[in-house]
Amino acid sequence: MSDHGIDVRAVRVLLETDPRALIVDVRTPAEYEGSHIPGAVNLPLEQVDAHLERIVAGAGGRLVLVCRSGKRAGRCRNTLAGAGLGDTVVLEGGMNAWEAQGAPLERGRERWALERQVRLVAGGIVLGSVLASPVWFPAVAVAGVVGAGLVFAAVTDTCAMGMALSRLPYNRPSGEVDIEDSLARIAAGR
């Protein structure tokens, strides 16, 4: 366990011993709907900045931030800590670690992870471009553009293709996040 990270075992102990500890899932509503830790509140990372003052002023207990792998949760923790909320930790390894440890999950409609969708689309475009290039040589440039986009995404830690794919109907949850309810649960510490 690092200074700002907490492993699955320690989170389970924390939830059993601290009634004000709360899991805050910063994944998209669609990811949350697919599976989440029982009792977790969904506050998508893209909503944190818009409600930062209310989160910091109202946090009623220790927040355990979680995403798929821990990266988005780490960004959220940095944002919250920068605004003065220090009592936050990140679940090391995120939902991947939680599930690997056999910890309880609430499951809903399963979807492919956004990262997997990006790999499928980018790989399909590159493969199609390479296969089309003997007939239409400029198709090679399409593969190059996708490759450059992937390099840019890695360097800047952003993903335009992922953002575009997240807007598809398949990736939308059946309902939207009730931000007011999420903020109220954060303030109540459960």
Which secondary structure elements does this structure contain, and how are they paired or packed?
Blueprint: E1 5-6, H1 8-17, E2 22-25, H2 29-34, E3 35-36, E4 41-42, H3 45-48, H4 52-58, E5 63-66, H5 71-82, E6 88-91, H6 94-100, E7 106-107, H7 114-132, H8 139-156, H9 160-166, H10 179-188
Parallel strand pairs: 1-6, 2-4, 2-5, 5-6
Antiparallel strand pairs: 3-7
Helix pairs in contact: 4-10, 7-8, 7-9
Characterize the structure shown.
The chain is built from ten helices and seven strands. The protein is of the alpha/beta class. It folds into two domains: 5-109 and 174-188, 3-Layer(aba) Sandwich (Oxidized Rhodanese, domain 1); 114-170. Helix 5 (71-82) links the parallel strand 5 and strand 6 (88-91). The radius of gyration is 19 Å and the shape is elongated. The model has no long low-confidence stretch (mean pLDDT 90).
- CATH class descriptor name of the largest domain: Alpha Beta
If you average the pLDDT, what whole number results? Answer: 90
Helix and strand element order = EHEHEEHHEHEHEHHHH
Report on the biggest sheet. Answer: 5 strands, parallel
As residue ranges, the low-confidence spans are: none
The neighbouring-strand order within the major sheet is 1-6-5-2-4
Structural class of the helix and strand makeup? alpha/beta
Number of domains: 2
CATH architecture of the largest domain: 3-Layer(aba) Sandwich
Cα separation of the termini: 24 Å
Radius of gyration computed on alpha carbons: 19 Å
CATH topology descriptor of the largest domain: Oxidized Rhodanese, domain 1
Pfam families: Rhodanese (PF00581), YgaP-like_TM (PF11127)
Transmembrane segments: 118-137, 143-165
Keywords: Membrane, Transmembrane, Transmembrane helix
GO molecular function: thiosulfate-cyanide sulfurtransferase activity
